[in-house]
Amino acid sequence: MDNRVSVEGYGPMSSLSLASRSLRVIALAAALVLTACGGGGGGGDDGGNPPPPDTGEIAATVVDQFDAPINGVTITATIDTTTRTASTGSAGTATVTQVPTGSVSVTASAVGLADPPAQTVTVTQGGTANVEFTMQRVTEATGGISMAVPVALNADESTFTFRVRVIVIDENFNPVSGLTASAFTLPDCFEETEVAPVPLHPNCVRHNVPAGDADYTVANATPASFRLVDPAGPVPYAAGLLFDSSDSISESDPTDARIFATKEFLNDLTVGGSDSVMLAAFANGDDSLLPEPPLTYFPCQPCTPQFFDDGNSLFASLDELATLEGGSTPLYNSLQEMVATVAATAPDVRQAAVLFSDGKDTECDPDGPEGSFLICTQQREQVVAASGDVNIYTIGLSENVDSLAMAELALSDGGAFMFAERPTQLISIFGVLDRLLSDSLPSYEMEWTVNAAAQTFDPSRAVIGKLTVDTGSATFTLPFTVQIQP
Predict the structure, then answer these.
(1) How many domains is the chain partitioned into structurally?
(2) In what helix (H) or strand (E) does residue 249 lie, and over which residues does it extend?
(3) Residue 359 sits in a domain of what CATH number?
(4) What is the pLDDT, as a whole number, of residue 230?
């Protein structure tokens, strides 16, 4: 990919470019006489008062490379020492008001997008200057865990060895090759390390109740039995895409990177091909904006589950989904329904359910009393037990995601848990989703040994951890969980 950029706070990344779309600026002037004076601050409703004299306004529209509107972009208009700002909404538009007349510099900026060049427009008294930006998405390296299995447990249950497979992806959607064992580290885990940051979630060595938690130390500084595993695919697949559409999404993904990222994935699906997808979203409660909560299938005319081999046919539904953030998170029930739907309607190929979420199931209340945590655990086990031949893949966004649950759902039965701490990493994940589902991604296999007090690694428990990956150009962490077995 081209157009590499550097964004403060992120380091080197890439900005995507589709079909060589250029930045477009349209400047128009209209004769409408209003009065008032320009100053600093944001644009917006002036409460019916006339604007100050010698000012006009700037109407901005911001889209991405798919021509989809981008929410949460700050538009800044600067003339001499005066600055006026406004932010785009879900329609990708913003109006900067009370801008002094004259030649004005206009910029657009948002976290996770590359800043385009500043544009100059002329603002006339009482007039409106129109400006349109096409912004490039920034991408970051990340990865996921595609296997976590026990290897050995000593007699007094004080030493446990397990094997994991790690997928590493660069910012250009390519698997990273050539890494050595020294690129991977696993830190000791104590309660204060907050591997699972929610207070009543267990850390390190998980028991059925948080009171049974225990710490561990890591015996090997670098992973043992290290090797690169070549993929077995490609194999055809039918995948149900299931999106968390609760109200927290507007905060964790303010510029809708997940929507753009999914289009990157769907753009590679071709009519008549062997692969197909289904699209659905979940959210519940009075605040849910979905047409048919708690689970809505798209397109929603009517809302019925169906597979598509033409990914572009779902673009309009994704744009609609970007405006439907609200409500609570019925994660487990929605996933179980999607798994059943895929099993009943998918073609005779690899069957998969892909779950995206930034939080945790709110219906079983994992942050409630200890009994609630056990109920959540049992619900996850029910989903896995009911999955049958459907592989579950999970994509978690932000440190607030229930990484313990997402890992257990995916790693119990042939899937993978992909993790994005920031929205910019989502694009890299969805950029390789086709190869992940078709079993066409290489992975690094390795073994780790952890130590604790006697009887800590009881088979009723699980080890939780966070691997750190250093590719030389990027560093990130990947949460995982592995069930303890003799």
Answers:
(1) 3
(2) helix 249-252
(3) 3.40.50.410
(4) 95
